[in-house]
Design goal:
Strand order of the largest sheet: 5-1-6-8-9-10-11-12-13-14-17-16-15
Order of helices and strands: EEHEEHEEEEEEEEEEEHHEE
Helix content: under 10%
């Protein structure tokens, strides 16, 4: 069966909540998809006010046209596939437990926030707080895979517990701040203070950092089998991981400000 296709007719006049457009929620919906309410900031809108709809399998949803005003797409999804040609706004894939989201463009803040499973692939850049929690939440990402083709903003992987974040470009400040576990790989350069207050987990930056907290301990250069395994894992996930196996990395332990048992790998100078 062919995909369910939603073709953007015009740029939305306001921010739109697209959380209703997942396989899980559409399976429970009644009536025409065009009539589904899109919660907005001002004037009420329905799906049909913004998109033309081509019927198809709701487990495979295609958005032909995106917008930075499209918020909450894929929130809480546990199954199915969503493909977006264009950009997305805030909180894309927040709390998703399964399924997959593919975005050709860039996404806003809090993409993959609280993600527990599934896969998100972002062709462009990601905003701040990638995979991070909302204010007051104890944990950020607890599983799944996030792949960013471009750069990521500040505090990517904040309070991360499990899973993988792979960033093809640069990362902003405080990469992996307050991490409890999981793996973050940045193939570009990381901003100041990666791993700030991390207790466990692994951060790998293939192109160095702007500055490192003095509470990390230099344990010297390493050629670990684990790094080759991570490189192979990235390749199997469809992520360019060859740069890791070809780079001699130096290991830093920390953050000792919180008696951390995390590790940060930087290219050897």
């Amino acid at each position: 069966m062919s995909a369910l296709v939603l073709t953007l007719q015009q740029e939305p006049p306001q921010r739109c909540d697209l959380s209703a457009l997942t396989a899980d929620r559409l399976a429970a919906a009644t009536g025409r998809i065009e009539a589904i309410d899109i919660r907005t900031t001002r004037t009420p809108l329905a799906v049909g006010d913004i998109f033309s709809v081509t019927s198809g399998d709701a487990a495979d949803i295609v958005f032909e046209g995106g917008s930075e005003r499209f918020d909450n797409l894929g929130v809480g999804m546990s199954t199915g596939r969503i493909r977006v040609t264009g950009d997305l706004g805030q909180r894309a894939g927040r709390g998703m437990a399964g399924g997959a989201i593919f975005v050709s463009g860039s996404v806003g803040v809090l993409a993959g926030s609280g993600m527990a499973g599934g896969r998100m692939e972002i062709g462009g850049d990601a905003g701040d707080l990638l995979g991070a929690p909302l204010p007051g939440e104890a944990s950020g990402m607890t599983g799944g895979v996030i792949r960013v083709g471009g750069s990521a903003g500040a505090r990517a992987g904040d309070r991360m517990r499990r899973g993988l974040i792979a960033i093809g470009g640069d990362a902003g400040e405080y990469l992996g701040s307050r991490m409890f576990g999981g793996t973050i790989v940045c193939l570009g350069r990381a901003g100041p203070l990666p791993g700030y207050l991390m207790t466990r987990g692994t951060i790998i930056t293939a192109s160095g950092v702007d500055s490192l907290s003095p509470t990390f301990i230099d344990t010297g250069p390493h050629e670990l089998v684990a790094l080759r395994l991570i490189s192979r894992w990235l390749t199997e996930e469809g992520i360019e991981g060859g740069a890791l196996s070809a780079t001699r990395l130096r290991r830093f332990a920390g953050d000792t400000a919180v008696l951390g048992k995390g590790e940060l790998f930087l290219p050897e100078a």
